[in-house]
Amino acid sequence: MCSSDLDEQAFAIYCYNLHITSDYEDAVRDYEDVFIGDISVHDYAVDLADDIYPEAVKSGYFDYDSFARDLELGGDVWEMDGYLFRGC
User: Fold this and answer.
1) Amino acid 73: pLDDT
2) What single DSSP character describes residue 5?
3) 7 close to 78: Cβ distance less than 8 angstroms
4) CA angle in degrees (0–180, nearest 5) for 20-1-18
5) Terminus of the chain with fewer CB atoms < 10 Å: N or C?
6) Alpha helix positions (H), 18-88
7) How many alpha carbons fall within 13 Å on the CB side of residue 25?
């Protein structure tokens, strides 16, 4: 059922948040598509902004906190217990 590199705690959080109680084989595939990692939404936003908005970041002005908030509010990502997932 589980791949060897599956983070069991993160997978449990994913299943709990999406109310998955069966069909774990499909859930594992879906989880592997959406799991970003053991990273805060803020740290992810910093990395993402550096990648997609390099000129704004280089200019010295970029509001990482607002960008991280917007990622969550827009449904692009969700965070629980220190694990980050793409929106479903």
Assistant:
1) 96
2) T
3) no
4) 15
5) N
6) 24-34, 41-52, 54-58, 64-73
7) 1
From residue 30, alpha-carbon distances to 1, 15, 18 in Å are 13, 10, 11
Q: What is the pLDDT of residues 5-25, one digit of tens each?
A: 778 899 999 998 888 888 788
Mean pLDDT, residues 70-84 taken together: 95
Q: What is the DSSP letter of 38?
A: S
Place of tokens 């910093």: 46
What is the length of the chain?
A: 88
The residue type of 59 is S
Q: Is the pTM of this model over 0.90?
A: no
Q: How far is it, in rounded angstroms, from Cα 78 to Cα 86?
A: 6
**What is the per-residue pLDDT across 23-66, written as a single tens digit (0 to 9) for each?**
788 888 899 999 999 999 999 999 999 999 888 888 888 899 99
